[in-house]
Every structure is written in structure tokens, then in C-alpha cells.
């Protein structure tokens, strides 16, 4: 029998042992991950794993970059004959030799990128000037101090090359473009200035170099801020009409020179300019419509008139906007970086940036302090110009520094988000370098084992109950039965204890590939083991699970077509569900949705070549609303597909004057519509009206409203008697109001 003292000692020992064991528990976070291979299944575009300015060709191959972008401010003035560019406002407006992966010749660059196993994206210059020969005491810079006087700053290595600002460091000087540039013209003509360079000749050379690869072209770069980055040759702010006209003209011309051209535009800079453009007076002069919806609408309608596309991919630059980080510690910057990509997808993430979380950016978009960047932009594109995918040809969020391990984790999350959210193409600015951990984060998706095996090709639903600031996960499957799961534990202190649940897929074995802060210079492979539903993931780590097993794909896969779209409050839009893979049939079930939208299946039978129909009725409250629809194939397998309905302000309205007129065949009738902006957030003057007729002809198909909101048009009746219907459409950004005239030729 123990003495009382000995008993107390034993009790103390057991208590301390228990305490020591329990002390480890706060270092573990329990998280449930549910992967459903039969929900939200869609292909991941392999073009989302891109970058610009990789270190060299061998790193393209090793990292697995799927696209490599020849882009940025420098390429806006690239001279394909001399292999030069002007450094513009980035560096004292001087001409330099251009190089990327060691290539100055754009055609050789294309060939070398292809040889490295990737796809090049070129930049077609739309500005009218290209650089002269490289600066070498030859005066090839825009703002000579000797010519223009002292300036705010000069190149420390060239005291005559100024920054183009007077000594007040505010007032811009006016340059003579001929000092540093040669003219860039579409094609040779009579009386061309000396040393002119021609786009059509360059495009022919690029097309030949592209060969069988996709002919990707950025239509210039950040055209909305030309008046800042290139104020020596574009001294005025970019204007709405200019950006529409320049794009349509050059994009159409490029398609003539290279029929295989895939044109990305407008390559917009950033959040404020998405909605306002650069000219502060332009928005008000264009019915108060936000710039990007206005631009895409204008391009779409002009393409309808011309009978051919001029934009193939809706492209913007997408740096997640952060707060002013002056005085922040490194730990604070790391934490910001690891939550900031919620900007891309999270309908609950109120931006921390004053650029987004402020009153004046847009009066039309719903929830304007919540970026929701990818679904919002895809909803706009699908609303205005169907079948136009979205791309981000610049992105980055390395607040803590390119070499910091937090950047590797943030990049791993970004690649997962872009695949899950159906982005078509993405190019990181700049591509990771081999000495930084984020290079290995890219390899986790593109070459995790050194044998160029990749993240699976079809995204599937992966949900978790973790804190999105500290944990994320993404899943995909291959038709062969392999599945991949990316687990990113962003928590710097706690292990993630994850309980996995699967549906539609039975995992059997797995191998893990881990990049951890404790070993940031290599991807560590585990042995292959039998699948276990509970696994631990170290703090500050990204782990790829490569899983073998069996799936339940069914006889057909389908898509809501589109999955995400925008519609005005109180209005309707129709989804056209379609078979995307397999030869089976699908029967749609009852949709489920957030309160605020109502979905009704009006054609529920899908087969190859036969689409269904789902009518979406928006409520009165603007916002983001999620929905899901079950679809059961002829073998009994149910696939659930969902997406987002972005509900905007109530629509503007159109009043018609001249309805129900009649006249002799060939007679002319005066018609007019009046735009009433209502609660759309827009205004009456400068709105665009698109008109079409079932017979006869119109004096114009695109008319701009006057200061009173009126848009007149003349209808010439057909030569034969009959009823004529004329349809007038208002801008999609204002809710796309539509009215129809019924006229008669007697």
C-alpha cells in the first residue's frame, strides 16, 4: 500500500504526463474535407499554369510552364526588326535591346518556347510607335535634358535621359516621338515615313513561327493606362472610344494576317480601371456604364454587325488588391499573402484594399466591396459575349517577397483556385525562378515527380470546414482513374489533421509529394501506401496526394452552359445545359439555390447535340447567388452541377416612338427609343442602342443616345408587303432592356 506522500507523487506524475500529452493538442487543427467526383466536374484548362520571363528555356521544361508570355510594358514598343524596345515610364523612356530567355528575336523566341515544351503568348503592338536602336550615346530616349531642360529625375547612368516630368515632379513634358521611335504601320503604303515598321509583315513571321501551336496574341498591354506608362507617345488618358476602335481595328487586321490568331483583350490593368477607364470624363459620357462591360458590349455588337469575332478571350490583369502595408512586419505580410487570394473566389471576402472597398469604383456592380473576381468577371463575359473565356495574363501576390515560403503556399493555392474556377489561361508575373520555393509549388502541379506527371485534368468538388485564411484544398480526377488532391496548410504553427470523405470515387492507394517550410528546397516523396481517410499535414506545407482508385463517371457528363452568368434584378436568363462528354442521356432534376434567385427546368432532357433549358428568375436584391442542379444519366449516375448567378441593379428601360406604323414597300419610317436609366446606376446620355430588323434595312444598327437619352433610326421597309419587327437593345451593363417595334409594309 502506497503512503500518502507516494500516492501524491504518483498522482502528480500521472497528471504531468497527461498534461504533456494534452499540450500537443492545441498544435493540431481538425479539418473535414469532402471530395465529390460527381459534383461540379469540369475540365481544368492546362493553360492556367503559365508565366512571363522565365529564367531560361530549361526552366520552362523543368517547371512545366504551360504558357510563356512575351508581354509587359516593354513589348508595347517592341521593334521586331531591330529587337529593341523602349523602357517607357519604367526606366527613363530609353531604347534598349529586348531579351527574354536569351532571345531578342520574337520568332526565335516562339520556336524556343515550343522546343521547351510550352506555348508562347505574343504581344501584338497596337501603339503606333516602336523603338529605334538601343541607347548608346545616340540620343535614343524621349526626354533629353539638353532638349527639354532639367527634370524631376534622370538615369544615373545617362544624365541626359530624363523621366519626362518637370522639376515640380508633376507636370509632364511633351515629347517628339521621332527622337526615340520609328512609326509602326499596318502595312506598306505610299509616302510612308522613313524607317517605318509594319505589323502585317511581323504577323506573317509570327504565324510561321507558331506553326501548329496555338497562335496566342495579347492585343498590346494594359491599354487603359497608356497615358501613364507611355505618356511620351500617348500623352492623353486612354479613352473609351479609342480603346474600342483601336482594338477592333487592329484585332480584325491581325486575323486577316494570321487566320489562326487567338486574340486576348483588352488586357486591362487593374480594379479601378476595370470600371472607370483612365479618362475621368468618359464614363459619364457613356451612360455611366462601367468600362469593361461597356467595352465588351461594344465589341460584341460590332462583331455582330461585321459577322466575325474580334476578341477570342476576355483578358485582364488580376493582382489581388491589398491594403497599405507600410510598417507591417514580415509575419503580417505573410499572413496577408496567404489570405489574399480569397479575392479571386470568396463571396464573403470584403476587400482589405481601399481601391476596392470604397464608394466610387462602380455604381452598377453588386457587392462592390467584395472582389469575387473570377466569378464576377466570368458572369459579365457570359452575360454579354457568350462563349468568351476569361484569362489573367498577369497575376501575383508576393507581399512577403518572391523568395519567402509564404509565396510558395500562395502560388500553390492560386493554381488550384484558377483551375477550380474555370479560368482559361493565366500567366504569372513573373515566372518562378528555381532558387525560390514557389518554383517547386508550380512543379507540384506540372512535374511533381520529375517525370512530367501533372495535376489531374478534371476539377471536382472539394469542400472543407477549415479557416480559408489558413487552409485550402483542391481535387481533380483523370479519366484513367487517377485522382490528385492538393492540400495547402497555411497555418505556420498547427498541424492539420484531415478527415477525408469521398463520393463517386473509391481511393485505394496514394503517394504524397510534400513541399514544406522545414525543407523548402525539394519536393519530398513518400512511399506508396494503402489509402487512409485520416492524414496529417505539417504546418506551412503544400502536399500533393496522387491517388489511385476507381471512379463512377457514368455514361455522360454535362455542364449548365454557362455555369455562371449575370442578370439584372427582376429579370430572367436561360441556361442551356449540354452534354460535354460521353454519349449517354441526362435528365435534369429539381434545382436548389440561394434565396434571391429561382431556377426552373423548362427542358430537362439532354442528349448529344440536344441542349436543355433552365430559366433563372432574379429577385429584387443585387448580390451573388449560388445554385446547383442534379442530372441523372441513363445508367442511374447523378452528376450535380452548380455555379453563380450575379444579380445586378434593376434594369434601365427603353420607351419607343414610332411603333405600329405602316407604309408602302420601300418607304422610310422614323423610329426612336428613349433610354431611361432608372435604378440601373447608369445615365441616359451616351448610351449605345443595338438595332436589328427582320426585313428591310436600318440607317444604322448601332446608335448612341443624345443628351435626352434619345436614339433615332430610319427603317426602310422591304420591297414586298409584310410585317417587319425591329428590335432595340440597351447595354448589358444597364440591364439589357429590350423593346420591339412592329411595322407594316402594305
Helix content: 10-25%
What shape does the CA trace take? globular
Structural class: alpha+beta
Largest sheet: 11 strands, mixed
Return the CATH architecture of the largest domain: Alpha-Beta Barrel
The percentage of residues in β strands lies in 25-35%
Name of the level-1 CATH class of the largest domain = Alpha Beta
Domain count: 4
CATH superfamily of the largest domain: Glycosidases
Give the mean pLDDT.
95
Q: Under CATH, the topology of the largest domain is which?
A: TIM Barrel
How many strand elements? 46
Q: Count helical runs.
A: 13
Poorly predicted runs are 1-25
Measure the end-to-end span: 119 Å
Radius of gyration using CA atoms only: 29 Å
What does this structure look like?
- There is one protein chain.
- This protein is α+β, with helices and mostly antiparallel strands and 746 residues long.
- It folds into four domains: 27-43 and 446-551, Sandwich (Immunoglobulin-like); 49-76 and 104-128 and 199-438, Glycosidases (TIM Barrel, Alpha-Beta Barrel); 556-648, Immunoglobulin-like (Sandwich); 653-745, Immunoglobulin-like (Sandwich).
- Helices cover 19% and strands 34% of the residues.
- It is built from 13 helices and 46 strands.
- The chain is globular, with a radius of gyration of 29 Å.
- It starts with a helix and ends with a strand.
Short description:
With 746 residues, the chain is of the alpha+beta class.
Which terms summarize this structure?
746 residues, alpha+beta, Immunoglobulin-like, TIM Barrel, 4 domains, eleven-stranded mixed β-sheet, eight-stranded parallel beta barrel, 46 strands, 19% helix, globular, disordered N terminus
Amino acid at each position: 500500500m502506497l503512503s500518502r506522500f507516494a500516492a501524491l507523487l504518483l498522482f502528480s506524475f500521472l497528471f504531468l504526463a497527461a498534461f504533456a500529452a494534452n499540450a500537443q493538442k492545441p498544435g493540431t487543427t481538425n479539418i473535414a474535407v469532402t471530395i465529390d467526383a460527381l459534383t461540379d466536374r469540369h475540365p481544368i484548362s492546362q493553360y492556367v499554369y503559365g508565366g512571363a520571363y522565365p529564367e531560361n528555356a530549361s526552366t520552362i521544361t523543368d517547371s512545366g510552364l504551360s504558357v510563356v508570355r512575351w508581354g509587359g510594358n516593354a513589348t508595347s514598343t517592341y521593334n521586331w526588326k531591330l529587337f529593341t524596345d523602349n523602357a517607357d515610364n519604367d526606366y527613363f523612356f530609353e531604347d534598349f535591346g529586348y531579351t527574354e530567355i536569351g532571345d531578342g528575336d520574337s520568332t526565335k523566341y516562339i520556336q524556343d518556347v515550343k522546343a521547351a515544351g510550352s506555348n508562347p503568348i505574343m504581344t501584338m503592338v497596337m501603339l503606333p510607335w516602336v523603338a529605334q536602336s538601343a541607347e548608346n550615346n545616340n540620343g535614343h530616349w524621349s526626354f533629353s535634358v539638353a532638349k527639354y531642360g532639367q527634370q524631376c529625375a534622370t538615369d544615373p547612368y545617362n544624365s541626359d535621359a530624363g523621366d519626362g516630368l518637370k522639376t515640380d515632379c508633376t507636370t509632364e513634358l511633351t515629347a517628339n516621338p521621332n527622337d526615340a521611335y520609328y512609326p509602326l504601320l499596318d502595312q506598306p503604303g505610299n509616302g510612308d515615313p522613313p524607317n517605318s515598321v509594319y505589323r502585317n509583315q511581323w504577323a506573317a513571321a509570327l504565324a510561321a513561327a507558331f506553326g501548329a501551336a496555338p497562335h496566342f496574341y495579347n492585343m498590346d498591354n494594359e491599354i487603359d493606362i497608356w497615358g501613364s506608362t507611355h505618356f511620351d507617345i500617348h500623352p492623353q488618358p486612354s479613352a473609351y472610344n479609342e480603346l474600342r476602335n483601336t482594338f477592333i481595328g487592329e484585332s480584325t487586321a491581325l486575323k486577316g494576317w494570321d487566320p489562326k490568331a487567338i486574340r486576348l483583350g483588352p488586357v486591362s490593368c487593374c480594379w479601378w480601371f476595370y470600371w472607370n477607364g483612365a479618362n475621368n470624363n468618359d464614363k459619364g459620357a457613356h451612360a455611366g456604364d462601367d468600362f469593361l462591360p461597356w467595352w465588351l458590349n461594344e465589341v460584341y455588337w460590332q462583331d455582330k454587325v461585321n459577322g466575325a469575332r474580334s476578341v477570342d478571350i476576355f483578358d485582364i490583369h488580376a493582382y489581388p488588391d491589398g491594403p497599405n502595408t507600410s510598417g507591417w512586419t514580415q509575419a503580417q505580410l505573410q499572413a496577408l499573402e496567404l489570405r489574399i487570394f480569397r479575392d479571386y473566389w470568396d463571396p464573403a471576402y470584403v476587400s482589405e484594399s481601399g481601391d476596392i472597398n470604397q464608394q466610387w469604383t462602380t455604381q452598377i456592380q453588386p457587392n462592390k466591396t467584395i472582389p469575387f473576381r473570377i466569378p464576377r468577371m466570368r458572369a459579365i463575359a457570359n452575360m454579354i459575349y457568350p462563349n468568351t473565356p476569361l484569362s489573367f495574363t498577369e497575376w501575383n501576390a508576393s507581399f512577403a517577397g518572391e523568395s519567402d515560403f509564404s509565396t510558395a503556399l500562395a502560388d500553390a493555392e492560386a493554381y488550384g483556385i484558377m483551375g477550380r474556377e474555370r479560368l482559361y489561361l493565366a500567366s504569372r508575373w513573373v515566372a518562378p525562378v528555381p532558387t525560390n520555393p514557389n518554383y517547386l509549388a508550380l512543379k507540384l502541379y506540372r512535374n511533381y515527380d520529375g517525370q512530367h506527371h501533372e495535376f489531374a485534368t478534371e476539377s471536382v468538388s472539394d469542400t472543407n470546414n477549415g479557416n480559408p485564411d489558413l487552409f485550402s484544398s483542391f481535387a481533380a480526377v483523370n479519366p484513367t482513374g487517377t485522382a490528385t488532391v492538393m492540400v495547402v496548410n497555411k497555418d505556420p504553427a498547427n498541424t492539420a489533421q484531415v478527415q477525408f470523405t469521398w463520393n463517386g470515387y473509391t481511393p485505394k492507394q496514394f503517394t504524397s509529394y510534400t513541399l514544406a517550410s522545414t525543407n523548402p528546397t525539394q519536393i519530398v516523396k513518400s512511399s506508396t501506401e494503402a489509402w487512409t481517410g485520416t492524414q496529417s499535414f505539417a504546418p506551412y506545407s503544400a502536399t500533393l496526394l496522387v491517388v489511385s482508385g476507381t471512379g463512377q463517371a457514368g455514361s455522360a457528363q454535362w455542364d449548365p452552359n454557362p455555369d455562371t452568368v449575370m442578370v439584372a434584378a427582376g429579370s430572367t436568363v436561360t441556361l442551356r445545359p449540354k452534354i460535354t462528354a460521353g454519349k449517354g442521356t441526362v435528365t435534369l432534376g429539381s434545382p436548389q439555390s440561394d434565396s434571391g434567385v429561382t431556377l426552373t427546368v423548362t427542358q430537362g432532357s439532354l442528349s448529344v447535340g440536344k441542349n436543355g433549358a433552365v430559366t433563372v428568375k432574379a429577385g429584387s436584391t443585387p448580390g451573388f447567388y449560388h445554385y446547383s442542379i442534379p442530372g441523372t444519366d441513363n445508367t442511374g449516375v447523378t452528376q450535380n452541377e452548380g455555379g453563380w448567378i450575379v444579380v445586378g441593379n434593376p434594369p434601365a428601360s427603353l420607351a419607343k416612338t414610332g411603333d405600329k406604323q405602316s407604309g408602302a414597300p420601300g418607304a422610310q419610317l422614323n423610329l426612336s427609343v428613349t433610354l431611361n436609366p432608372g435604378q440601373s446606376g447608369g445615365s441616359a446620355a451616351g448610351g449605345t442602342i443595338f438595332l436589328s430588323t427582320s426585313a428591310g434595312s436600318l440607317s444604322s444598327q448601332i446608335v448612341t443616345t443624345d443628351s435626352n437619352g434619345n436614339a433615332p433610326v430610319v427603317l426602310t421597309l422591304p420591297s414586298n408587303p409584310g410585317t417587319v419587327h425591329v428590335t432595340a437593345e440597351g447595354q448589358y451593363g444597364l440591364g439589357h432592356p429590350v423593346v420591339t417595334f412592329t411595322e407594316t409594309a402594305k
